[in-house]
Each structure stands twice: as structure tokens, then as C-alpha cells.
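sry for the spam today, last one i promise. C-alpha cells for design, 123 residues
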């Protein structure tokens, strides 16, 4: 199956932890079809990771929870992505978040946090 180039670039940038940039890529195609909740869920996951990296825990939690809500109907696999693995990652992220609404940037950078490497393909 053929996918939009921005989706493929998103996977690459996500794996490089360039969360703000990969959000921008998917936003381009999501704006053309806002009913695509799969793309919206991936966008929100990237934004959640971006928020976390800056210490915005409240924003990260909100984005992770919404991402999980949007991606759940697409499990176990959609657009050659293991959505079940993404959902497990989101659950780990939510569980790893501190209770505070915000933490210093340096604390967020030093904190161990779940990691996910996205790959496309069948099992």
C-alpha cells in the first residue's frame, strides 16, 4: 500500500526524537482530512512527547490520553503500523509521568522515560 510521504517522514523523524518537526509533517495531511483520527492520534502522541521534553506534564498527560483514545479503534495494526505497540507505549508514558503539572526542563531531560521505535511492515 502507498502512504503519504509525510507519514513516512513522520516515522523517520519520530525515531530521531524530533517530535515538533514530525508533528508539523502530519498536521499538513491531517488538515486536509480532519476526520482521520489515526493521524490525529499520532500527532497528539508527538505533541505529548514534545510537551514532556519541556516539562509540561499537564499538557503531555492530556495529549497522551487523547492520543490513546483516537488510536484505540485502529488496533492492532493500521497503515502497516503496530498500533497495539503504540498504545502500550502511551500507557507506559502516562504511568511514568510525575504527579506535578510541570517540572523543570532539566528534570524532564534527566528523567528516565519510555521509548518507542516505530517501524512499518507486517508481522
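last one done:
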Amino acid at each position: 500500500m502507498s502512504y503519504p510521504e509525510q507519514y513516512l517522514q513522520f516515522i523517520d523523524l519520530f525515531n530521531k526524537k524530533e517530535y515538533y518537526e514530525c508533528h508539523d509533517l502530519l498536521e499538513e495531511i491531517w488538515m486536509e482530512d480532519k476526520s482521520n483520527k489515526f493521524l490525529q492520534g499520532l500527532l497528539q502522541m508527538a505533541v505529548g512527547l514534545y510537551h514532556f521534553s519541556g516539562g509540561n506534564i499537564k499538557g503531555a498527560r492530556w495529549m497522551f490520553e487523547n492520543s490513546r483514545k483516537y488510536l484505540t479503534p485502529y488496533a492492532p495494526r493500521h497503515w502497516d503500523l503496530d498500533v497495539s505497540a503504540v498504545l502500550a507505549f502511551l500507557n507506559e508514558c502516562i504511568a511514568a509521568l510525575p504527579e506535578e503539572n510541570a517540572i523543570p526542563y532539566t528534570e524532564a531531560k534527566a528523567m528516565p522515560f519510555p521509548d518507542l521505535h516505530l517501524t512499518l511492515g507486517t508481522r
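The CA atoms of residues 3 and 79 lie 8 Å apart. ok im logging off now
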